[in-house]
Amino acid sequence: MIYLAAEHFASPPQWTWYILFYFFFAGLAGGSYVLATLLRVGGDARDEPASRIGFLVSFPATLLCPILLTADLGASWSRFWHMLVDVTPGDTGLILHYWSPMSMGAWALLIFGFFSFVSFVDAWLMDRRRRPLLPAPVGKLFNIVGSLLGLFIASYTGVLLSVSNQPVWSDTWALSGLFLASGLSGGAALIMLLVRNRPEAAFSLDRLRLADGYFSILELVLLIAFFVTVAAAGEAGRIVPWFPLWIVAIIGIGASLLGFRPPRLRPTGGGAAVAGVAMEATVVSVLVLIAVLALRAAVIFSAQ
Amino acid sequence: MAAIQAGQEYGFFTDTSVCIGCKACEVACKEWNQLQGDNPSFLADSFDNTGSLDAQNWRHVKFIEHVPDESATTGDGAAWLMMSDVCKHCKHASCMEVCPTGAIIRTEFNTVFIQQDVCNGCRNCIAACPYGVIGMISKPGTAHTCTLCYDRLQGGLEPACAKACPTQSIQFGPLADLQQAADVRLAALHSQGQTQAQLYGRDDKVYGGLNAFFLLMDKPETYGLPNADNAQLPSRNNVAGYLTAAVTGALAVVAGLVAFRRRVTG
Hints:
The structure holds two protein chains of two kinds.
Chain A: H1 17-42, H2 48-72, E1 85-86, E2 93-94, H3 101-129, H4 136-162, H5 175-195, H6 205-232, H7 236-239, H8 243-258, H9 271-302
Antiparallel strand pairs in A: 1-2
Helix pairs in contact in A: 1-2, 1-4, 1-5, 1-9, 2-3, 2-5, 3-4, 4-5, 5-6, 5-9, 6-8, 8-9
Chain B: E1 10-15, H1 24-33, E2 59-65, E3 80-86, H2 94-98, E4 104-106, E5 112-114, H3 124-128, E6 135-137, E7 142-144, H4 150-154, H5 160-164, E8 170-174, H6 175-191, E9 198-200, E10 212-216, H7 238-261
Parallel strand pairs in B: 1-10
Antiparallel strand pairs in B: 1-8, 2-3, 4-5, 6-7, 9-10
């Protein structure tokens, strides 16, 4: 058995607000990038406007991540680069510990930042000048590689928490998948929210809601797995005080599932088409985004 | 004791059966390492007003009361347990395993040491340490714990706490010598009928062995120490965590493709 009913005597690391919002934006950055790629690679040509929304929001969200992480270092903020470079006298050089999720995450964030930035510029150029930065086959391959990193960024934060000796976090295997499913759901919600400002992307709205529904099913299954594993480890008492946050998280999942239905006729473009579903999509999206934040808050605070 | 030499393993053997809770170790540690300590507080926890190990307390005398209401015996050495707790300088150190910066190293004395000029205050070591011994000092924003008086060792001096301990509850020396002394002491206690006495961290069952190991008069959990079954490295969860992410990612990509490939009429 990997997971035992462990007795924990570890001190809390005091990872609080900066880390909470880092986890939130990392989930959205990775999730929206993956969805943008899926829309571009697997979708219809009419999905391209929504795909570009995904790339356009992924980079700003990614940009916030190192800022939040650096702020969390407090007085040592100027040493953020020590995550990448070992400055031990006599042993200087780049540092990557594959067994340390934080080390892996620092590198992944840097490389994903590059992919996210290039895709952002590409989408912006397409919007403004109808000319992509990268030719189509290369661009799609670039997006696919970036998506793999996006999946990592959205999920490794769960591994980071599990690879510790903290109660709750280290008592479950479900966190990485839970954060990934939640990040993808949040990414879909974010893109749907922004479709309001881009009528030509309305074609993708129902498809995004369908995808969001699938992600929410995954999230629900993993949430149940999380509760079961934590309870089996005898740590259920630590998650109970955060009951309101769990309820908010579950409401978000429920909102996604209520909107879960097959795509129906959606004419391409047109403000009227968007207006018809705008309110419903907005409410669902906002609930989902709040739930993404609440889920992470509940997990982070349960152990501390 | 013979001269302290680089390249040899050193550590502490803390014999809790002779600890009298005087806290000389706490004071000596603070004095030598110039630790200011936390603000005094009344914890209503026996004679303990330190609370726990942290960035300002690298030694902490724990008081564990098992005194029955109506004492019929002398307690057999287990009625009132006292233990001077400290960083265990684990052979397989959880803090060292997760540190992303390489700030946590093994010294030439095989002790664990946080390089203050390399640490960037990420606090991953605090999340990982199963003993809760590491703490943060907000300025300069780095993690701190017992160094096993690294500077004193380099100068050929034994650590301040061991030097100050009046009952030799804290013994310092080459690890092999300490282990031998611990075995002798355990055998003596067992021969006196103190069968509950046990060594903690003497062998490799707990984090590959501890450079700071203990003789306990009760089970480890009583002292706030994980037992051998619970003493696991953080990396045990790497495979399961990444595997869950990979499976979820694969299912999500398939789900996304199904959703986006669905034919739309009109």
